[in-house]
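Record type: monomer structure entry
Structure origin: computed from sequence
Chain ID: A
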Amino acid sequence: MRSSLADATGDRLELGAYLEDFDKHFWRAGSAGFWKLERQQTFREAGVKSWEAFFRGEWEKALSLLSEQRGHYERYFRKIADHGFGLHRVRVVEEPIAPYLQWELHLLHLKEQCGEDTRVVGLSDIALLESDDALPEIAIIGSSVLYEIIYDDDGNLAGGRKYTDSEVIAECKRIILDLHESGERLNSFFERRVAPLPAPAVHHLQA
């Protein structure tokens, strides 16, 4: 996947331009749907109240704030369905599960209950794809636009690189579809590996 993107021409979009462009295309995904590959194990979600509570070490508060978002996500996924497409995600999970990822998997579990379609894969599932470098963070909207999502060194969203080459999009989408098909459904993974975990230790994140 890295080599496919390296050989293609993409337009670098700074954060504001990326968010605007993404939103313009998102609701036009159509029957081809929205597909996302999430590889990094840690991000920063400044401004998200639940993440901020998690980051402060207030785990029960973080989960409570997530629960309060159920109505929001039910409305959001109904809107997506009304626009005629689905939202699909492949989430790479390394073991042991990082504190941030433990929080995010609770969020993704809520989203799945509201309509998102998420599968989980491990490092062994992507080993052949990472012979040279880690997989990028990818979002594909329909069949006409692909974004390599860019984060800064601290894990903050910093923008994206937009690709419109149909062959590049098709190749990257094929990889994501294959991983999605072979991955474990999030619900079963969550009940087996995430729900039993104790509250994550996050004090080192604040250093």
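Annotation 1: The CA atoms of residues 10 and 205 lie 33 Å apart.
Annotation 2: The radius of gyration is 17 Å.
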